[in-house]
Write a structure and sequence with these properties.
- The complex is a heterodimer of chains A (about 550) and B (about 80).
- Chain A contains 23 helices and no strands.
- Chain A is an all-alpha fold.
- The radius of gyration of chain A is 26 Å and the shape is globular.
- Chain B is about 55% helix and about 0% strand.
- Chain B contains four helices and no strands.
- The longest helix of chain B is centred in the middle third of the chain and has 15 residues.
- The model of chain B has no long low-confidence stretch (mean pLDDT about 90).
- The chains are: A mainly alpha (about 550), B mainly alpha (about 80).
- The interface between A and B is medium-sized, with 29 and 22 residues.
Chain lengths: ~550, ~80
Amino acid sequence: MSLQLILAIIFGSIVYWVVVSATQRRNVLLVASLLLLYALQPHSDIGPLNILFPTVSIIMVVGVWLIISTPGSDQTAGLRQVVLNGGLALLVIAALILLSPQRNTLLTTARDMLARGQQNQIGLLASLLILVGVVVLALPKGRSFLLLAACLLILLLWMGQAPQGLPSLDLPAMFQGSLPGKTPVMLLVAVSALSVGPVFIPSTATRKKMALIWLGLMVAALAIIKVESLNLSVSAQIRGESSLPGTSPFDLRWIGISYVIFRLAHVLIDFRDDGLEVTANLPDFATYVLFFPSLVAGPITRLEEVVPQLRENLQAFRLDFAVDGLFRVLLGVFKKFVIADQLLIIAAKPALFSGSNHPAVLWIMLYAALFQLYFDFSGYSDIAIGLARLFGVGLPENFDRPLLQPNLQLFWQSWHMTLARWFRQYWFNPLTRRLIQTPLRRRQNAVVLISQVSTMSLIGLWHGVSLNWVLWGAWHGFGLYFYKVLGDANRKRFRQWIQNPLRAQAIRAVNVVLTFHFVLLSMVFVVFPTIGQAVRYLLALFGAGQ
Amino acid sequence: MQEQLKAFIANDLLGDPTYQIDNEQSLIKGGIIDSFSLVQVGLFIEKTWGLKVPDRDLTVDKMDTVNQMAAYVQKRLSKA
């Protein structure tokens, strides 16, 4: 988020409390979230992707909601009908246009009809508003003709030639070419088909199977975006080239996809494992998943943390909440745009590392890199939490003085807390539980080793699919393992040591320094793209290997 | 209930029956037990009170103190 946008959102919050009625505030949050989903999507010169990725996110939200919400309730029945009608209408219209012998004439006519509107960029705005309207209204049965009309309009608008800089959707062209090139369109078709699925088959067992398919699809979507080689190969295919020049490591970028998927995955897993259905209506659910303050950089919220607030907290303005929110935004802006951006200049990076750097310089650069990462990310979290509070919504904390913790276990309870929590809930806990119930339980340390190292390696992989990120994760995983084993073995002795308060403080101070430096050294895997460079930097820090 | 939980934590998790635990003491944030031990607490609750404790509930938000753990068990028992 830029400073201008943050300022605009702050002013928006004033309008929100002064002008908007209490019953409409949730709707305003949803509309703002949907608009910002499109506005914040990083611009791609492959025009259709600018529209396609945010749209797939929205379809995912609707599709997942249809799977996990209680079938048979008035709300779901109405929406199922709408999705069915709308989906079929869209397919029929698309098929008619694409298969018609007069396809080109039809397209040209539509283009001519809409040319004037598009020159004023009204076309894009209208299609976005219609899309937003459809989701917001969650139309009851009787009004599904509106959806039909909306689908037709959107299709025509996208098929028309967009003015320069605006995305157009040339459907026939996107279905041509090789298989990887069609991935984004296939993704669109797959999520749409999956969304329509529960309309036909509402049995719980089938829905649970579909939840698994959704999870698989989300992992695939994440892989396309996060795995560099996959990302580049798909984008090269879309561009119709055999490969891309290596200037941009990630050509396909998808706004907020990681965070959207974390939020959707938790409700899907809870439904699949424990049959936990969601009572939230679609607008509440969509606001939770796509909530604009936490779209770009988290925190990774849970449904039950956000949805009740959308019903209770938006009724009346609370000054203490707003003042606190504003303070958090200012703190975040200071951390991110003043401290972190300044530190970036001297933070360790491949360009600054040569074989002749003095170790002291290398240490300073590495300190700067860790502090830069901390102030950048925790600053972003402060901004997100603060902006959400300005609109009456409390988000969970993401950082709690992580660099001042006396051990690695506590570091991971205070650094990117919502990410660590997610992985504990959905990977570490189930894995540990299973392992404890196997013969391996007699070797507790082995269970701890497997659980910690695999969890941290996965967290590393989430940050970036590379060997360096896996090594970073393994570094922390082994650290947690050794801390646990040594801590368990020396607990009694340690308790005796810290009986003296002065000694306890001294030991704590030493532990804070040790933990900080353990985390600091892991930064070499974050800063450098290859293992060779990371290891050379590590050696050079201690005056070796130069 | 609190006493049973405290006895389990002191004996089985910390290996030190003399360890004094306060009901309001922050166990995870205070560095007394870790996330691995919390899974063991979950299994202990399941075995002792015949409840199913979902993995998503084994977090510092819900089970950082003995009182929080006991409140969780009470709430689940009253719903069962």
